[in-house]
Design a protein that fits this description.
4-stranded antiparallel sheet, 3 helices
């Protein structure tokens, strides 16, 4: 069953954050994931949630998400991401 990583992303420094994107994309792909949504103008239909940028990654399994998130090579990139942005991240299983 596919897993979806949903990210509420607020970028503080676009140029700096691009360094993170360039480094993390190959790691996402290595874990079998892919980016399916990046939207900085998403449509809010109800509620108070207004992400600056909505990002969704798809992974083949929960184990693939954990392999990516816990990978030793990703750990320094988390610090880089935090330097240039603020995020909220949740993972949900597709139906």
């Amino acid at each position: 069953m596919s897993m979806y990583v949903v990210i509420d992303l607020d970028i503080d420094d676009p140029a700096g954050f691009q360094r993170y994107v360039d480094a993390v994309t190959p790691l996402i792909e290595k874990a079998g994931g892919r980016n399916i949504v990046t939207d900085d103008n998403c449509l809010v239909l109800e509620g108070d949630w207004r992400p600056s940028t909505l990002v969704v990654h798809e992974f083949p399994t929960r184990e693939a998400v954990r392999a990516f998130w816990d990978a030793p090579e990703y750990q320094p990139l988390k610090a880089l991401r935090r330097q240039y942005s603020t995020v909220n991240v949740v993972v949900g299983e597709g139906s």
